[in-house]
Design a protein that fits this description.
single chain, 283 residues, mainly alpha, 14 helices, 68% helix, 0% strand, globular
Length: 283
């Protein structure tokens, strides 16, 4: 394992440009059903990953690693060529090994829970429900996944950087919790393929600071020698992701008017901060 992110395969092989993502998006438009874009599929698969995590009682970092593997795999492979439900199970299974979660029985645990999760989400996007996931399918797909990943299995997540920044800036718990939640949400986006983890952590801190006022943190952030353009770009992508999220149709009363008003004011505050950062960078 590379102790230095800049010398790791994560940095040298798997931080890609937006042109690579756009090429993958263009490829999928040729094959996906009308009205289903790649973001719809990724959003659904995030729900699948969440269900797998809950059913297997796994830590958030295992889910995060599985999502990164999944996104890396589908940079060069089509959703229609390799079943994303199967690949989600395989990515989670591989992540449990890399993150050293202890022995997890393939057939009784991964396969059974994978099939149950697949049926749960099948009504949203049908994918041949008669073909259950088998242990042999998982084993074969795992070799395919590792080949595509070029055995680059160690992931640098923003969580470690966020913890280090919190200690350095003496961040209070409410703000750290908000930033941690923002890092969790970042996996709904392709940021893990575009930016170093420490920049994602800083962007999440910046967003959290607009929700939980902390003058000390703002001063600390202003003294950092970082690319404001890159930071603003990450913040904007997170904002776009939050704007696209909607409450579940099955439970429209889950967010009351007060909660929605608080979220609206929070988004407005984040936008003002992003505009301020953009202006400072141009100056």
């Amino acid at each position: 394992m590379a102790a230095n992110f800049w010398k790791s395969s994560h940095c040298t092989k798997w931080i890609v440009g937006t042109d690579k993502l756009q090429a993958a998006e263009k490829r999928e438009r040729l094959y996906l059903p009308e009205g289903i874009g790649t973001q719809v599929v990724y959003g659904l698969m995030m729900e699948v990953f969440g269900a797998l995590k809950r059913n297997l009682n796994l830590k958030q970092q295992v889910l995060a690693s599985a999502v990164v593997y999944f996104r890396r795999f589908y940079l060069n492979n089509s959703f229609t060529a390799v079943d994303p439900y199967l690949m989600a199970v395989v990515c989670m299974y591989l992540a449990t090994k890399i993150e050293e979660c202890g022995p997890i029985h393939l057939r009784n645990t991964i396969v059974n829970i994978g099939n149950r999760t697949r049926l749960e989400f099948h009504t949203i996007w049908p994918r041949e429900p008669s073909l259950d996931i088998r242990a042999d399918d998982v084993i074969q797909a795992e070799f395919l996944l590792m080949q595509e990943l070029q055995c680059s299995l160690i992931i640098f997540h923003p969580y470690r950087a966020l913890t280090q920044f919190a200690a350095d800036a003496r961040i209070r718990e409410p703000l750290l919790s908000r930033a941690w939640g923002c890092v969790n949400d970042s996996y709904f986006t392709p940021l893990c393929l575009l930016h170093p983890p420490h920049m994602i952590a800083l962007a999440c801190l910046q967003i959290a600071s607009t929700l939980v006022e902390d003058a000390q943190l703002l001063q600390w952030l202003s003294e950092l020698n970082i690319s404001i353009t890159e930071l603003t770009d990450i913040i904007q992508q997170l904002l776009d992701m939050y704007k696209s999220l909607k409450p579940p149709a099955a439970n429209p009363q889950s967010r009351d008017a007060e909660t929605q008003d608080m979220e609206r004011r929070a988004v407005e505050a984040i936008r003002r901060e992003a505009n301020r950062l953009a202006g400072a960078d141009q100056a």
